[in-house]
Specification:
Belongs to the shikimate kinase family. The chain contains 8 helices and 5 strands, in the order E-H-E-H-H-H-E-H-E-H-H-E-H. The chain is an alpha/beta fold. The longest helix is centred in the C-terminal third of the chain and has 19 residues. The structure holds shikimate-3-phosphate (S3P).
């Protein structure tokens, strides 16, 4: 049985929906960003000290470890994880769900963007540009795309279960 992997733009609810989905399925939930923080400390600080390239390398290694877990899990990935082609290759054997949101919803959810170093000083401008760069990649990786701006976390998790 494959893992269920949640991908999508920053603010799309990958962590919260992932946790709700895991509860429904009785599977463990893991989050690549949480794992990164537990191992290496704060992501903004890591970016400042080591840069994005190094972050992506470590992010890929963490994801490879998480996907290799003996127990099928629900795994939420950081929004930029799909940029790594080795990660994309690993996702081919998993059930991949893209959570999609509009810029209006993203604006409500990402706030001032300080916890996300790729967003810089103009978070919504950056979010929109990054979304445009990544949308095709997300869709190409996904077995299921869930576009549900106004649904609650619980409803989104129910919808995924119904479509598995
Ligand atoms: C990033 C998204 C973040 C985190 C890091 C980089 C990105 O995760 O991995 O700040 O490049 O999109 P979320 O998608 O959970 O915010």
């Amino acid at each position: 049985m494959s893992n269920i992997v949640l991908i999508g733009p920053m603010g799309s609810g990958k962590s919260t929906v992932g946790a709700a989905l895991a509860r429904r399925l009785g599977r463990p939930h893991v989050d690549s960003d949480h794992f990164f923080v537990a191992r290496y400390g704060s992501i903004p600080e890591y970016f400042r000290a080591h840069g994005e390239k190094d972050f992506r390398e470590r992010e890929h290694r963490i994801i490879a470890e998480l996907l290799d877990s003996p127990r099928p899990s629900v795994i939420s990935l950081g929004g930029g994880a799909v940029l790594d082609e080795r990660t994309r290759a690993l996702l081919k054997d998993q059930t991949v769900v893209m959570l999609d949101i509009t810029p209006d919803q993203a604006a409500l959810r990402i706030g001032d963007g300080t916890s996300r170093p790729v967003l810089g000083d103009e978070p919504m401008e950056a979010w929109t540009r990054i979304y445009a760069e990544r949308e095709t990649i997300y869709r190409a990786c996904a077995d299921m795309v869930l576009s549900a701006d106004d649904e609650s976390i619980e409803t989104r998790a129910d919808t995924i279960v119904a479509r598995l």
